[in-house]
Write a structure and sequence with these properties.
Number of domains of chain B: 2
Oligomer: heterodimer
Number of strands of chain B: 5
Low-confidence stretches of chain B: none
Number of helices of chain B: 10
Number of strands of chain A: 13
Shape of chain B: globular
Radius of gyration of chain A: 22 Å
Largest interface: A-B, 39 and 42 residues
Largest sheet of chain A: 7 strands, mixed
Distance between the termini of chain B: 50 Å
CATH class of the largest domain in chain B: Alpha Beta
Structural class of chain B: alpha/beta
Distance between the termini of chain A: 43 Å
CATH architecture of the largest domain in chain B: 3-Layer(aba) Sandwich
Strand order of the largest sheet of chain A: 1-9-8-7-6-2-3
Strand content of chain A: 15-25%
Order of helices and strands of chain B: EHHEEHEHHEHHHHH
Shape of chain A: globular
Structural class of chain A: alpha+beta
Strand order of the largest sheet of chain B: 2-1-3-4-5
Mean pLDDT of chain A: 95
Largest sheet of chain B: 5 strands, parallel
């Protein structure tokens, strides 16, 4: 049962209301004449709801940069009367992520977990605590090659403040109508106390049921192995010849890591200013495919070859992150596969390993 | 603390890398408070030869360049190659792929015998180089980071990552998605992906990132992309990143 029903134009008004108090980030269409179709979508800052295109299929990059930016200052330091002072920097700008697909919502739930393991990452949670998430469900696969259904990430039942389900266009017009589910009290208050949305009637409920059934039929499995069995499959595959055979194509460019919505590794650098005793500590995205990721003191590199790095990433995504955090480490969005200019494909890797085993 | 004495020299090149130092306008006064510049043709008239850190841009392209860089090495406690020409040979190496009689004729005309010349080389081919700050031009922010590391006696490391890392950090749409063969995956980053960010393919001006990446390029361009390899090799030769006639 849906919580509310809202028309597109009313949703836009509601988003504009949010924009008065929060920074709005959502899918924006960018014309790319060389591509087919000649448009690509990116999560970007917008001033007004009408700059968003909620009919987007997928965004090239996930919204992770708005929760854990490519680089950020952790603290600035200075010397004060001979003493050392360090001032942490937190970003608590009220923000709303609008139009987040279930896969990316799962990825954010993973971040919520891993950034809370052992040491709570206050820089992440400062942003996260100030961020409202308005999800956009996918009626079908957003593009070829995704395996979100395999990873259980094509539907999200939590991790959002409100989730929109595009039911299709109105019977009396050409306007999109959405069913809405509340995920949090904030999401509930946002919609329930506005006059823009309505309680679902019997027709709406039927439409929502049909939407769910159509969605179920639209997604198919891409992996030959069930998610629950990936640990066992990889357990048998550590010495497979596939790693070397595939990694001969790998540039170690790290594009798979950096475009992955669940990759969260970072590198930390201290930097001083030129003249005074001040400076800052900052972090930036890192990735386990990058050649110096596992380089330690004494110039020893634990994973000096692309093959060992490729294997490491696949194990992390399919098994190790889940073992450590309890949340599955891959959401099947296939951004890694699309980002790979060597066309190394994770679905092919899993399926070839299944064939070997 | 004594201010380190810095010198900046130019061999065969456009001196754009020396100019990049002068373009650090907002930091220049801070830099001058902590270092003493003793020799800088692009920026001053005095000449000093007691040098802690010598920066050199330009390639070895003439016998005179070779003599000069050997002399600079003797006077500099630390010698740093700056820019694609000094680090790789740069666009000067384009002549290495043409007969000397031809390029000497079209460059110097009937005065060719007045100008002795040789195959263009990076300065590391002639003298020991302690650090390299590559790029066409050198990245001035990287220069600044290098200076800070030297002043605080912290190790300086150039990134071992390809340009792709910086495209992803900036959220740039991969040029391969537009059907463009970009050298980003085989090129050492640190440039903030300035060319792809403005829609231009990477030309490899910071050099090949690793042998592993270069070998992958050979495999991928043959097996995954239907592209004329000669064009790709010509691109890789443009800044001297790669001199061979075929990909590994």
């Amino acid at each position: 049962m849906a919580d509310r029903i809202i028309r597109h134009s009313d949703l836009m008004k509601l988003v504009d209301e949010v924009a008065r108090k929060r920074r709005i980030i959502g899918p924006v269409a960018r014309s790319v004449p060389e591509c087919e179709p000649p448009v690509r979508y990116f999560y970007e800052d917008v001033e007004r709801a009408d700059q968003l295109d909620l009919s987007f299929r997928y965004c090239v990059y996930s919204p992770k940069r708005f929760l854990t930016p490519p680089s950020e200052t952790l603290f600035a330091f200075d010397q004060d009367d001979g003493g050392f002072v360090a001032a942490p920097q937190y970003d608590r700008r009220p923000t709303a992520l609008v139009g987040v697909h279930p896969c990316d919502i799962h990825a954010i739930r993973l971040y919520d977990r891993v950034f809370d393991l052992e040491h709570r990452d206050e820089h992440y949670f400062a942003r996260r605590g100030a961020t409202m998430i308005i999800g956009m469900d996918c009626p079908g696969p957003c593009t070829d090659g995704v395996f979100c259904k395999d990873m259980g990430a094509n539907v999200a039942e939590a991790g959002f403040d409100a989730m929109l389900y595009p039911l299709g266009t109105d019977t009396d017009g050409d306007e999109m109508r959405y069913a809405v589910m509340f995920g949090t009290k904030a999401g509930r208050e946002w919609l329930l106390y506005s006059r823009q949305s309505a309680a679902p009637n019997a027709d709406d409920e039927r439409a929502f049921e049909k939407y769910q059934a159509d969605k179920e039929a639209a997604f198919s499995f891409a992996l030959r192995t069930r998610r629950e069995d990936l640990a066992e499959l990889l357990g048998r595959s550590y010495d497979s010849l596939l790693w070397d055979a595939t990694a001969r194509r790998c540039y170690s460019c790290g594009s798979c890591n950096l475009s992955c919505p669940t990759c969260y590794c970072f590198d930390i650098t201290d930097e001083t200013d030129l003249a005074s005793g001040s400076g800052r500590r900052w972090r930036e995205w890192d990735g386990c495919h990058l050649p110096e990721f596992a380089l330690v003191a004494g110039d020893h590199n634990f994973r000096p070859k692309a093959a060992s790095r490729l294997r490491h990433r696949i194990y992390r995504k399919a098994v190790w992150i889940q073992e450590r955090s309890g949340v599955v480490g891959c959401v099947g969005c296939a951004r890694c596969d699309r980002a790979c200019t060597a066309k190394i494909n994770s679905v092919e890797i899993y399926n070839q390993l299944a064939e070997e085993a | 603390m004594m201010k380190p004495k810095i010198a900046i020299f130019s061999l065969t090149g456009c001196e754009g890398c020396s100019l990049a130092i002068l373009e650090l306008e907002d930091q220049l006064l801070d830099i001058l408070q902590v270092v003493e510049i003793v020799n800088f043709r692009e920026g001053m008239t005095e000449r000093g030869w007691d040098i802690d850190i010598g920066f050199v841009d330009g390639a070895i392209s003439t016998p005179e360049d070779k003599r000069e860089v050997e002399e600079l090495r003797k006077h500099s406690r630390v010698l740093v190659a700056i820019g694609a020409c000094a680090c790789l040979g740069g666009i000067n190496t384009l002549k290495n792929h043409q007969p000397a009689s031809e390029y000497r004729a079209y460059v110097y005309g009937d005065k060719a015998e007045w100008f002795p010349t040789m195959d263009a080389q990076p300065i590391s081919a002639v003298v020991k180089v302690d650090y390299e700050l590559p790029g066409c031009p050198m990245v001035k922010e990287e220069f600044l980071r290098f200076v800070k590391c030297m002043l605080t006696e912290r190790p300086f490391r150039a990134t071992a990552n390809a340009v792709c890392v910086e495209c992803k950090k900036k959220g740039v749409l991969c040029l391969y998605e537009k059907g463009i063969i970009c050298l980003g995956p085989v090129t050492r980053g640190g440039c903030d992906a300035i060319c792809p960010a403005y829609g231009s393919k990477c030309e490899g001006c910071r050099g090949v990132v690793s042998d592993e990446a270069l070998a992958a390029a050979g495999v991928n361009l043959r097996e995954q992309y239907d592209v004329p390899l000669d064009r790709v090799l010509a691109d890789m030769r443009f800044h001297g990143a790669y001199q061979e006639k075929s990909l590994p």
